[in-house]
Amino acid sequence: MQQGDTQDGKSPSELIDARIEELGDWRGETLARLRALIRQAAPEAVETWKWRGVPVWEDAGMICTGETYKAVVKLTFARGAALPDPKKLFNSSLEGNTRRAIDFKEGDKIDADALKALVREAVALNKSRTKR
To answer: Domain YdhG-like spans what residues (predicted)?
Structure first.
């Protein structure tokens, strides 16, 4: 799913497609793989495009962002500090009270099952807060 037109009449999903293509390297491949796993875990999630070019996935609130840097693709979970992480996926932004992130470097293997479980936990946490 996607939300609203944002830039040059393109939807957020189209802008994410363009980002993946423009990267044209392992970062684009990694972002595409992460996106596919997020979509599998949270099929109702809406793709948005914020802060001048950051892909964001939302379902009853923000799930995570997908930022790309020179050396990493970073998935930042908006409320990651409140999520169970039995597989110890979080490896970045560990000092904060709210967010947690996973930095993926070139060649890193993605634990698809653990990542999907983390996404589902994030959605469940968001939905539990909206019921109050």
So the answer is: 27-123
Tell me the pLDDT tens digit for each residue of 28-41: 999 999 999 999 99
The residue written with tokens 């796993």 in the block is 37
Give the pTM: 0.90
Question: What strands, in cross-sheet order, belong to the sheet with 46-50?
Answer: 46-50, 54-58, 62-68, 73-77, 100-104
Q: Where are the alpha helices (DSSP H) in the chain?
A: 12-23, 26-41, 112-130
pLDDT score, position 132: 59
Strand, helix or coil at 60? coil
Q: Is 69 exposed, middle or buried (0-12, 13-18, 19+ CB in 10 A)?
A: exposed
**pLDDT on residue 5:** 46
